[in-house]
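All the exercises in this workshop are built on plain-text protein records. A learned vocabulary of local backbone shapes supplies the integers on the structure line. Once this layout is familiar, the rest of the handout is easier to follow. An example says more than a description, so a record of this kind follows:
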Amino acid sequence: MKTTIYIENEQHLYKCDFALKHLLHSAIRATLAYEGFQRPAEVSVTLVDNARIHTLNRERRGVDRPTDVLSFPLFDEDFGDDEYCALGDIVLSMERAAEQAKEYGHSLKREVAFLTVHSMLHLLGYDHETSPEDEADMFRRQEEILERMGIGR
């Protein structure tokens, strides 16, 4: 399976180095492997600060506050099994991820991996806001993927 991952860094608070890029790639690929996704795919990740994600959250979701991650799915299940698939875009606030890592008492690495996996599941059609059962299912999947990556709690 060929997955093309584009990473754009639009923030200056945290270094977008090889380790961070590798983590993003690993989280995306681990999610696709866990879900058994076998198509050639493309995902873009944009790293931003709280001000930028606040603007996007207000414009796209009508929520006037910063958030940690936004997912913009493009995936259409009507594609054939072997066809190339643009899954969508992930916009991740590194500033909010660092705040949450501190708040939850774990590493920035774990928080960024969690948010990336969470967003990937949204790109694949999961939604934790539809029912308590869907939320439990999505959060179970997230934890299992992180465990497989060796990034447990």
About this structure: The chain is about 50% helix and 20% strand. The radius of gyration is 15 Å.
